[in-house]
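Example record

Each entry pairs one chain with its bound ligand, fe (ii) ion.
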Amino acid sequence: MKRVNQILTHPLYQDALRIIEQAEEDRIFCKHDMEHFLSVARLAYIYSLEDDTGISKPVIYGTALLHDIGRGKQYKSGIPHHEASVGLAESILTACGFSDEEQSMMLDAILFHRKDGKQREKRLRSILYKADKASRNCFVCPARDRCKWPKDQMNLEIKE
Ligand SMILES: [Fe+2]
Ligand SMILES: [Fe+2]
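Structure tokens for the complex follow.
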């Protein structure tokens, strides 16, 4: 997991984390913090094992760590965070030694993480989407009534 830990300690990653943390200090809804990133990573890895995708752990964890990293840019300048995250992830992944092939899969999954991707050839896209949604504990959220998530999509109970 050396490359995953290189992402964590990369200066661009650290800066982006700090910006998100400051911007979300008073946020009552789900935050985009390390707890979220690691929940997504672990769920995505479980889904990957269940589906026998063969996608490597560093690729899954790296994608999860980076998928919302552009959130600060969205707060600051309105650029959709899936696009901002791709921009940041590109520079970080190259510096952390991910191959062109790995990067193209990871950046695709990040770019489409807000859209349900069902195509079989895009398995990382599908598992990231599913893990991202499943990671949110709506059933214990005190801000649930004010959340813009459609009620029929909320996690109102623990799912498999
Ligand atoms: Fe997101
Ligand atoms: Fe997310």
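The radius of gyration is 15 Å.
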